[in-house]
UniProtKB/TrEMBL annotation:
K Homology domain: residues covered: 229-292, 300-370
GO MF, one annotated term: RNA binding
This protein's name: Transcription termination/antitermination protein NusA
Origin organism lineage: Bacteria, Bacillati, Bacillota, Bacilli, Lactobacillales
Region (Disordered): 385-428
């Protein structure tokens, strides 16, 4: 049995990649569990496996005491001295209790523990193998699909491709070979779980690294990627070597390099632009194939106004605003595009508004100066007398009288009023 056991451990290590030490630890733990269940033994049981001969021994460890209260855990000092005169109280003695037959329950328990340890070891091996591919690209084979996921075989594990991570309108058939970007690797209770994507912008970056050796070597660097999966993408590149053209290097001879990436992504259009330290030049390049006349920045708002020729306005904006939207994602600026004629009209309106504002300001200043001049010429002391003269009306008995302060008394005024009322009554 020992030879067969060692041979089985060797085969398990070759097929599953599980080391002998892991299996031996699992076997020892399984035998301890099975022995305790079958024989009701306490927790002082040890199991030793001989990796050279394959022999298994079970020991009960007991403490040397004066008075024995539990024979499973303790041994009398007298019995200990019979075994060896060097034993003292407090020493631990190992007694071999290897059973000849563990029984069906014990064997089943040992099997379950071993299988559990083997599964855990396999999960750890798979997790450690695929965690290094996180944020990297892998090639897999489409196996099956359901309402939520498409399952891609990556070798030792099935990765899941959700609908959100798929390229729109791309059809996947069983046995199709596709390249996917590993977004996340998790070690769950059910085993390792790998999540992949076909729409992630970094998939495009990894594909360029595979197809363009200069990018992999670091001579050409990808600065930014903006992508609308399945339709169009923009890639900004720069070169660390002044003798190397970054755009031409990525395109390749007769467009072979970029065409291989387009084929892999089922015809997704690709714009490769050169990155520049000058933001205006960078934005102009990002709006390719449209030509840019002028770029004005608003640093506080993080936006820019781009002026293009009239006949290139639709080209700069793109279908459903796609070109401008991708350029904004690529550069990080909010891009507002106007034609030259619209810009001239806007400038004319702004100029007219500035003229009107200036004229209004001049009129306002003139009015203020006129008021100030009037204030300087008017004699404030004459205003009450002038108002009094204006308020006087002909026929008013009081006002017609030569009423001045000191000339008429109050009785005179009353008599004058009564005589006036009598005259009015006779006239009626």
């Amino acid at each position: 049995m020992s030879k067969e056991m060692l041979h089985a451990l060797d085969e398990l290590e070759k097929e599953k990649g599980i080391s002998k030490e892991v299996v031996i630890d699992a076997l020892e733990a399984a035998l301890v569990s099975a022995y305790k269940r079958n024989y009701g033994q306490a927790q002082n049981v040890e199991v030793q496996f001989d990796p050279k001969k394959g022999n298994i021994h079970v020991y009960a460890v007991k403490e040397v005491v004066d008075v024995v209260y539990d024979s499973r855990l303790e041994v009398d000092i007298k019995d200990a001295l019979e075994l060896n005169k060097a034993y003292e109280i407090g020493d631990m003695i190992r007694f071999e209790v290897t059973p000849k037959n563990f029984g069906r329950i014990a064997a089943q328990t040992a099997k379950q523990v071993i299988m559990q340890r083997v599964r855990e070891a396999e999960r750890n091996i798979i997790y450690n193998e695929y965690i290094q591919y996180e944020n990297d690209i892998m090639q897999g084979i489409v196996e099956r699909q359901d309402n939520r996921y498409i399952y891609v075989n990556l070798g030792k594990i099935e990765a899941v491709l959700s609908k959100q991570e798929q390229i729109p309108n791309e059809v996947y058939h069983p046995h199709d070979r596709i390249k996917v970007y590993v977004t996340k690797v998790e070690n769950t209770s059910k085993g390792p779980q790998v999540f992949v994507s076909r729409s992630h912008p970094n998939l495009l970056k990894r594909l360029f690294e595979q197809e363009v050796p200069e990018i992999y070597d670091g001579i050409v660097e990808i600065i930014s990627v903006a992508r609308e999966a399945g339709d169009r993408a923009k890639v900004a590149v720069t070169s660390r070597d002044p003798n190397v053209d970054p755009v031409g290097t990525c395109v390749g001879p007769k467009g072979q390099r970029v065409q291989a990436i387009v084929n892999e992504l089922k015809g997704e259009n690709m714009d490769i632009v050169e990155w520049s330290e000058d933001p205006a030049a960078y934005i102009a390049n990002a709006l390719n194939p449209a030509k840019v006349v002028d770029v004005t920045f608003n640093e506080e708002a993080g936006s820019c106004l781009v002026v293009v020729p009239d006949y290139q306005l639709s080209l700069a904006i793109g279908k459903r605003g796609q070109n401008a939207r991708l350029a904004a994602k690529l550069t990080g600026y909010k891009v507002d595009i106007k034609s030259e004629s619209d810009m001239e009209d806007t400038q004319a309106v702004d100029s007219e508004l500035e003229t009107l504002a200036a004229q209004h300001t001049e009129d306002y200043v003139a009015d203020v100066e006129e008021i100030r001049d009037m204030e300087n010429t008017i004699d404030i002391e004459q205003i009450p007398q002038e108002l009094e003269d204006q308020m006087r009306q002909p026929g008013d008995p009081v006002m017609d009288a030569d009423y001045e302060e000191g000339e008429l008394s109050s009785e005179d005024v009353e008599e004058e009023i009564e005589s006036a009322e009598e005259r009015d009554a006779k006239n009626e």
